[in-house]
Amino acid sequence: MSVKSPPPPSLYDPSKPQSYFSQCFTNLGLLGRGSFGEVYKVLSLQDGKHYAIKRSVQRFRGDRDRQRSVREARNHERLGRHPHILGFQAAWEERGHLYIQTELCCTSLLMHAEAQPSNTDESVAWAYLCDLLSALQHLHSRGFVHLDLKPANVFLTRSGRLKLGDFGLLLELSGEQRAEVDGREREEREEGQEGDPRYMAPELLRGEYNPAADVFSLGVSILELACNMEVPKGGDGWQQLRQGNLPSEFTNALSAELQSVLRMMLAPDASERATVSQLLALPVVRRQRWKRQVSLILTESLLFLFSLCEIMLSAGRRLLSFLHVPFLLGWTPPVPCTPPRDTWVNDGNCSTPPPSFLYTDTGSLGEDLEFIPDVLEADYSPTVSHR
């Protein structure tokens, strides 16, 4: 698979031994590692912007493995632009590895939730639900299903906007390709390529792939975040969720409206489960979605103004430095002869300013780099419990 946006000839030289990745990007650190790939934070030498690049860990084991990896990149690109879908930039194949370049987010929803000192407020849970319903609506309208929706595969921007990502199990279920998809997925599941069992819909175990599976996974994710509970990966607690029984010791603290929506999303029978369109049409969801959109607009507008002020201030400093005004450079403020006694060092020398006058802050605001660890490998209890 070729690069979506080829670099300028002056930047990438194929005759050099260094890879395209090494020539065109500065690697700023590892963001995360999974069974199928590593994700790095990089600085693009083409446009000076930060991105995330996912690189397959192992070399392609054959043409079938290569086709599976390339399909992930092509499907991600075909999803197009959407406010709640992780933005695709480019993809390329090099030396037996696949590279996928995407927009860079601050952290994953899983890490963000675990870093909170207390339970997620219900209004925040509603906001998460609205963002991800919008993402699924876009994805399903194009004939795709995600099949691996969970907090670890959802990312947050600086403004708190959620972006659905990690499309390694993305499948196209439209028309003529349905039989081909079913056959391919059945073979790949035999190889162990399947979603997280904690969020998996019951019909997936029977080889039934449909948009309703994403609704179920989203319901489990919102239940986990809103109730601050650990989702069981097996045992009686796992069975109870797939029988439509929500743990009352956690859900009793939720409003009746949110409990009702969760029950619609976690219906055991896929044919009786609410669709994304039906959920978005609910009055309570429409109301919460409107509030969420207003909140995002205000937050992102303030962040834009703040960034604009930073750019103008930086430009002003460079301009003053470039002008080199003589009278400004030659002038120094006079030192007072009789400063207050309590603010000076008691050494008898009134020409030496105190330590507070000598201090100069040369630091600058830095960007916190958060590392997203692997998918949790703790041995979860078979019953539902708090984090």
Automatic annotation (TrEMBL):
Example of a GO biological process term: negative regulation of G2/MI transition of meiotic cell cycle
Residues annotated as binding ATP: 54
InterPro entries for this protein: CC_SR_Kinase, Kinase-like_dom_sf, Prot_kinase_dom, Protein_kinase_ATP_BS, Ser/Thr_kinase_AS
Membrane topology label: Peripheral membrane protein
Location(s) in or outside the cell: Golgi apparatus membrane
Gene Ontology cellular component annotations, sorted alphabetically: Golgi membrane; nucleus
Record's keyword terms, sorted: ATP-binding, Cell cycle, Golgi apparatus, Kinase, Magnesium, Membrane, Metal-binding, Nucleotide-binding, Serine/threonine-protein kinase, Transferase
Keyword Kinase: yes
Annotated Protein kinase domain residues: 25-285
Top-level EC class as recorded in UniProt: transferase
Basic and acidic residues composition bias: residue spans: 178-189
EC number(s) per entry: 2.7.11.1
Reaction it catalyzes: L-threonyl-[protein] + ATP = O-phospho-L-threonyl-[protein] + ADP + H(+); L-seryl-[protein] + ATP = O-phospho-L-seryl-[protein] + ADP + H(+)
Principal subcellular localisation of the protein: Golgi
SMART domains: S_TKc (SM00220)
A Pfam family: Pkinase
GO MF term set: ATP binding; metal ion binding; protein serine/threonine kinase activity
Disordered: region residues: 178-197
Family to which the UniProt record says this protein belongs: Belongs to the protein kinase superfamily. Ser/Thr protein kinase family. GCN2 subfamily.
Protein name (Swiss-Prot/TrEMBL): non-specific serine/threonine protein kinase
Organism: Megalops atlanticus
